[in-house]
Prior knowledge:
single chain, Arc Repressor Mutant, subunit A, 2 domains, 9 helices
Amino acid sequence: MEVAKKIKGARLRLRVQAIALLKKGWHQKDVAEAVGAGIRTVRDWAFRYNKEGIESLYNKPRSGAPRKLKDSIGFKQRVLAGSDYKQDNIVSWNGQKLQEVLRKEFNADYSLSGVYLVLHRLELRWLMPRPYHPKANTELQEAFKKTLKIK
Length: 151
């Protein structure tokens, strides 16, 4: 159990704790209840541990499509820098424009929902306060507010 406390990673720690309890003589059913796993899962962990040792309890690499965006740091910096009205022809970012930037500048083709997933993965939020247009005249806006009469 002392070994399990030093292990980083909750899943591996749970597996090592289960093996430690089994070595202490606990029944598989009791271990399953204690660690919050199924009996079959505890049996699999025990089988893997007996066959290959503690290394078999580590997470194995999972298959899946490789990420399309190779330069996620560069993309994050581009988003945080904000849109340039002259270059991007918009005042603030939106999903469609970020999709276009990803395609043209980062050679990564994402669906609109995929763009929002990338933003979430990079810990960016797509909601923001309403932007101000760069050509807006604040003096005229303030004068308008003073003369506006709301009933």
